[in-house]
Write a structure and sequence with these properties.
With 375 residues, this protein is an alpha/beta fold. The protein is built from 14 helices and 16 strands. Strands 3-4-2-1-7-8-9-10 form an eight-stranded mixed sheet, sandwiched between helices. A six-stranded parallel sheet has the order 13-12-11-14-15-16, with helices on both faces. Helix 3 crosses helix 4.
């Protein structure tokens, strides 16, 4: 088959959604399918359209971005590039420009992979809502990662929800085999900081990282925050003001090849998100695959279908600094609890969220669409 993925960005640009797109694209290419990804550059670039680069067997077309408007890259060449003749087109939301490309482009078998709703001002939603619903009605199928996604999928509309298929995200557990002898990354504070928490992701407001920093400061615990984003400056100022720079570290962006070392050395993982914009938490799943217990927040989203409180980790109310502090202290002082939860977390990641399983289920959907047996 010829499969086209319409994504906002693509690795090495960071992000859980981008990681999922790359996993699907490379997984299909490895199984002999012709795969192309159309995306925008992750930063402002004034050049002309680049020819497709082959990465992991996938043709990746990165288009120049003329700025970012409400989290949407303005890539003028996107509509034309999206017309590449494909048997199946994957539209990865939230990505209004890709919705527009599908609606204005030739009719093809389209799968709307609904990762999350657009999280923006009401005025923007009034414009985007009708477009999103029209594309969902036209789509041959829609996909969500958990059943909880459907309760938050306003942009799918009733037609999109009616044809939705649940296919969980997956992670390559072979990258995250627990290794007690893994080298300690230079960014990690000294062991005197005690058991260390880890966060991996974009530094954006809905991640609740200010709550994490204050909870860690109150508990006297160490945290390593991996990633970059618009709130990094605010976090650095908060860390300085609280005087916890030796225990709370902003490690910045870490290459994917080095990321497993961070999971290996950490004692537990924290996903402190405060908004339903956090629909799943791919980095949390990676930590679980590495055998690490997790602390997540009760958002009523797919996060709660990944981390099972009391079995694979702990759960606290979103934005509750005291509750997060208490949960971190509990894991920090109880190594037996960390071990028990971590073993269960790795088992759950391998059994329910494998990368191979995710790729195979998506390819089965594509093949059914091409045969006319779905949609």
């Amino acid at each position: 088959m010829r499969i086209l993925h319409l994504s906002k960005f693509y690795p090495p640009d960071p992000g859980g959604l981008e990681h999922v797109v790359a996993s699907l694209a490379e997984g299909a290419a490895a199984r002999g399918h012709e795969v192309r990804v159309v995306c925008a550059t992750g930063s402002r670039w004034a050049g002309e359209r680049r020819d497709a680069d082959v990465e992991g067997g996938v043709e990746v077309v990165r288009l120049p971005t003329r700025g970012i408007w409400w989290s949407q890259p303005m890539a003028p060449g996107y509509l034309a590039a999206a017309r590449w003749p494909a048997d199946v087109v994957y539209l990865h939301r939230p990505h209004p420009l890709a919705d527009l490309a599908v609606l204005l482009g030739p009719r093809r078998r389209t799968v709307v992979f609904h990762h999350a709703d657009v999280q923006r001002q009401r005025a923007a939603r009034l414009v985007y809502g009708p477009l999103a619903h029209a594309v969902a009605r036209r789509a041959a199928a829609t996909v969500v990662a958990t059943s909880a996604h459907l309760g938050h999928a306003r942009d799918l509309g009733s037609a999109g929800r009616a044809k939705a298929v649940v296919i969980p995200y997956g992670t390559d557990e072979t990258r995250f085999i627990p290794d007690p002898d893994a080298p300690r990354p230079a960014a990690f504070p000294l062991r005197e900081a005690g058991p260390l928490a880890l966060f991996v992701g974009r530094l954006v407001p809905y991640k609740g990282l200010d709550v994490l920093v204050r909870a860690a400061a109150a508990a006297g615990l160490g945290v390593v925050i991996v990633g970059d984003g618009p709130v990094r400056g605010e976090l650095a100022e908060l860390i300085s003001r609280l005087g916890v720079g030796k225990r709370v570290v902003l490690a910045g962006r870490v290459p994917a090849s080095e990321l497993p070392e961070y999971y290996q050395v950490a004692d537990y993982f924290v996903l402190p998100s405060v908004s339903p914009a956090e629909m799943f938490g791919v980095s949390m799943l990676e930590a679980m695959a590495c055998g690490k217990p997790v602390i997540s927040t009760g958002l009523g989203t797919g996060v709660g279908e990944v981390n099972q409180p009391g079995t694979t980790g702990l759960e606290v109310p979103p934005g509750d600094e005291q509750a997060l502090k208490d949960a971190m202290e509990r894991l920090a002082r109880d190594s037996a609890l960390r071990e028990r939860l971590g073993v269960a977390a790795r088992r759950r990641a391998a059994e329910e969220f494998s990368l191979a399983g995710m790729v195979e289920r998506h390819l089965e959907l594509c093949e059914a669409l091409v045969r006319g047996e779905a949609g």
